[in-house]
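User: Can you predict the 3D structure of Raffinose/stachyose/melibiose transport system substrate-binding protein? Sequence below.
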Amino acid sequence: MRSLTRVGASLAAVVTAVALAACGTPSTATTSGKQANLSTPKEKKGTLTMVTKFADPKYAPYFVDVTKAYEAANPGVKIQLEQVGDQPYKDKIRVLSASKKLPDIYFSWAGDFANKFVRANLAADLTSVIGPDTEWGKTFAPAALKAFQTNGKYYGVPIDLDAKYMAYNKKAFAKAGIANPPDSLETLLDDCGKLKSAGYTPIALGNQYGWPAIHYMTQLNAYAVKPDTLSKDYNPATGAFTDPGYVTALTQFQSIVKQCATPQANGLSHEAAQANFLNGKAAMHYLESLEFLALTTKGGASKDLADNWSFFKLPASSSSPGDTKALTGAPDGFMVNAQSENAALAVDFLKFMTNAQNAQKLTADIGWLSPVQGSATSSNSFPQLQEALTDMGKASQFAIWLDTVTNADVANAYLSGVEGLINGATTPQQVIKGVQDAAAKAKKQVG
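Assistant: Sure. Here are the predicted structure tokens for Raffinose/stachyose/melibiose transport system substrate-binding protein:
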């Protein structure tokens, strides 16, 4: 949008707003303070409010179609759907939270972004309806449900499956004399030299909004730091970021930028970088599986590119001490306002949105993988998407996007620090010092 993404520098404002909203009651709230009854309503009627971040013309129609279909099947229900872009959504949810007008259903990234709504009592506990032992819960891939699990309870409805891969142009690789995609970071860096000699920008990188670089750091951190340490540091109550692997990961990213990436990447958007890959100027582009459709003729790519691309996971260094089978990614999802008077109706609509028919429609219409099991078939997807789904099944775990899994202050320290690393204004040691300071601040806040 892509996919476009993850939480940027405005996340801190969102967090502040959520904290403020927790002091009051949203406009759709009940006043009892009790958990809403989520069982299917006997009479389906009323108005549901819903906000997504899928305003892109390639994706928005799917959500419009599903809401209209639900209204047609339930004439007593009206759904007020509002769809905004990725960056505007962060501002939107901040305003809605602060003004106590959180909608019945709202979008959320997995990780600490979602957990902040949980901690502020703004997200309904959906365990009774979507837990892994429930009828609805069993229809989802377990890893997708787990991404929205907090303290053993389930708060989100996953809407897609997404992971990060390096797409590559087969013709460019062949011209550069590269027979196979790299299986180590060292080989990737060496291949970048060959691609430059062949006249290509090795990797198209557009980091105008910060999150593309953070996706690299998500994967590199998973490789360079042991899982138990990552889990401890990503928790705002215990984060310290003192493991030397964090500097190693930043140094590795610095090497990728210097040897492979588009010059002045901070001044280029992700979409512009992707265009350089699509027009054959760049040999590789790090993108999400949600974006794969853009590389097909249906998504607007030339037949020459569409017929000659594949992908690989960003490879680990040969000496990585972390989890080399981890894969950057996570599902996006929706949460239900904990105080909504229409919580049961909201759940019923989300069940409809994620039934088998609509899950298959999601993949067929916009090329996203659905977390609903069995929804991707040869008739509604394309080979690379099916290959990605298979690859996701081989991953040991999802390494959730660094800027959503961590505390907002930590995420912002990484965002600004890595931007400086790209510009040459900061060193890996300086970046991690800023992250450590942010982690210390976060620890005081949650303590």
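Residues 164-327+404-446 form a domain with the D-Maltodextrin-Binding Protein; domain 2 fold (CATH 3.40.190.10). The chain has a mean pLDDT of 90.
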